[in-house]
Specification:
Blueprint lengths: L1 E9 L3 H12 L4 E4 L17 H7 L3 H7 L3 E2 L1 E5 L8 E2 L11 E2 L3 H14 L3 E3 L2 E7 L5 E7 L4 E11 L8 H4 L2 E3 L6 E8 L12 E5 L5 E6 L4 E7 L1 H7 L3 H10 L2 H6 L4 E2 L4 E4 L3 E3 L3 E2 L2 E3 L5 E2 L7 H22 L11 H17 L6 H5 L2 H12 L5 H16 L17
Parallel strand pairs: 1-2, 1-10, 2-7, 4-13, 10-20
Antiparallel strand pairs: 3-6, 4-5, 8-9, 9-10, 11-18, 12-15, 12-16, 12-17, 13-14, 14-15, 18-21, 19-20
Helix pairs in contact: 1-4, 1-9, 6-7, 9-10, 10-13, 12-13
The structure holds flavin-adenine dinucleotide (FAD).
């Protein structure tokens, strides 16, 4: 038995669901296959405001607004003993981007997938796909449904939206990993965390332990997400179990620990790898990659969903044009050029964050540069101020000898 569609999307996270919506709205014949039934847990809870533009195009912005997720107006960074001045999105160039939301991913992802169904995509859940074939581009895709029956998928275009699983990416492209940005994360949700009043209550807070390690605090409805990001060896030094690692990391950050005096952990402690990587190829004959299957950047600036949705937005017109061209199979290589620009700009800022000789504080005190930084934190990566800032950061890193090809330094005395 065979599933037939013009476009088969493998994976129903935000990237896959967004692409399904955009294609189905244009009348394309789309089938999406997701291994889980939703809602399901996923890490990645903080949006940046530029995502609002895509959510409006997807027809879910009003729904999200009514849902009651905490409003996120900014980001604040803390050193060991001192807070720095918060970055508020209202300082950004575009007034439409002055706030966004912190989301419970189980609900956010289910909302997007539901929208895909509403606009006519055929959404199959509990449907795990497997890809067989060679790296030369000849591959066969099959899907196993919960009942255990296996069917092949016959499509003109296959899209890998399976996140870090990379079901097609691993076969057709492979990833270039950036070993100097090899981190892991340990995280959980907590109740009864002391948050600041007013608009600061929804901000993302970043607590730096040193050049290599930091913690996030992301307010969600009823709970607060807290996690540490650091090189794996550093995490092992903090404790023997995920619970011990997270507790030790919080204790090592006095300003965060103070907010957690009354707090109780509400979920198990989970772990994730968060390598920074980029696929060697974005697409080829009859296939392309979007979302985390295409690339992933360290989560310090909460860019995952922004990049995932942006890649879906760029894939949609490329696929529509390819289907119209009638060529079989259509070549989709090079569709993600705009994505690459955003990816590289954020990567420069990530390298600066992990460079202990680079000081964002001094940098951010200069008026226009501050606005450029806020534009970047907002995801508005192409304003003149944002471009200037990225260029200035890149040349400062170059001068410090930490440009393109060098990695972040671990704080003196810290393990590698
Ligand atoms: C520690 C950490 C913190 C993060 N914090 C943030 C943050 O604050 N903000 C942010 O924007 N991003 C954050 N991210 C990144 C964010 O989680 C991802 O970028 C985002 O989820 C990518 O969306 P996606 O749709 O590409 O992949 P996913 O959301 O991973 O979706 C992929 C889907 O494919 C399905 N799938 C996989 N394999 C198969 C298969 N064989 N068959 C069928 N289905 C399959 C999966 O079940 C899943 O539902 C963080 C990431 C990490 C690791």
């Amino acid at each position: 038995v065979t599933h037939r569609a013009d476009v088969a999307i493998l994976g129903g996270g935000p990237a896959g669901a967004a692409l399904a919506i955009l294609l189905a709205e244009q009348g394309c014949d789309v089938a999406l296959f997701e291994q889980h039934t939703f809602p399901r847990f996923h890490i990645g809870e903080s949006l940046i405001p530029a995502v609002n533009r895509t959510l409006a195009r997807l027809g879910v912005l009003d729904r999200l607004d009514r849902h009651g997720f905490p409003r996120k107006h900014g980001v604040q960074f803390f050193n060991q003993t001192t807070p720095t001045r918060p970055f508020y999105f209202r300082e950004a160039t575009d007034a439409a981007l002055h706030s966004t939301w912190q989301v419970e991913r189980s609900e956010f992802d289910a909302m997007l997938l539901q929208r895909a169904r509403e606009v006519g995509a055929r959404v199959h859940t509990s449907a795990r796909v497997a890809v067989a074939g060679d790296s030369g581009g000849a591959f066969a895709v099959s899907v196993v449904a919960r009942q255990g029956c296996e069917r092949t998928i016959d499509a003109r275009i296959f899209v890998d939206a399976s996140g870090q699983h990379g079901v097609l990416a691993r076969r057709c492209s492979g990833w270039r990993r950036m070993p100097e940005l090899h981190n892991a994360a340990v995280f959980a949700h907590y109740r009864h965390v002391d948050l600041d009043p007013g608009i600061d209550a929804g901000s993302t807070l970043v607590y730096r332990l040193d050049a290599a390690a930091w913690l996030w605090l992301i307010p969600l409805p009823d709970v607060v997400s807290i996690g540490i990001v650091a090189p794996p060896a550093r995490l092992h030094d903090l404790g023997k179990s995920p619970e011990a690692i997270l507790a030790a990391a919080i204790a090592a950050s006095p300003l965060l620990a103070a907010r957690l005096r009354r707090a109780r952990r509400a979920t198990p402690v989970r772990t994730a790898r968060d390598f920074t990587y980029r696929a060697h190829r974005d697409g080829g004959r009859g296939w392309l990659l979007i979302g985390d299957a295409l690339g992933f950047i360290d989560p310090i600036y909460s860019t995952g969903l922004f990049l995932a949705l942006r890649s879906a937005e760029q894939a949609a017109p490329a696929i529509v044009a390819a289907l119209a061209s009638g060529s079989a199979p259509p070549d989709l290589a090079g569709f993600a050029r705009d994505y690459d620009i955003a990816f590289d700009r954020f990567l420069t800022l990530v390298r600066a964050f992990y460079c202990d000789a680079f000081h964002f504080g001094a940098f951010a005190r200069q008026g226009e540069r501050r606005r450029g930084l806020v534009d970047m934190l907002t995801g508005d990566v192409s304003t003149a101020a944002a471009v200037d800032v990225v260029q200035a950061v890149a040349s400062d890193l170059e001068a410090l000898g930490r440009g393109q090809h060098s990695g972040p330094r671990v704080a003196r005395g810290g393990p590698r």
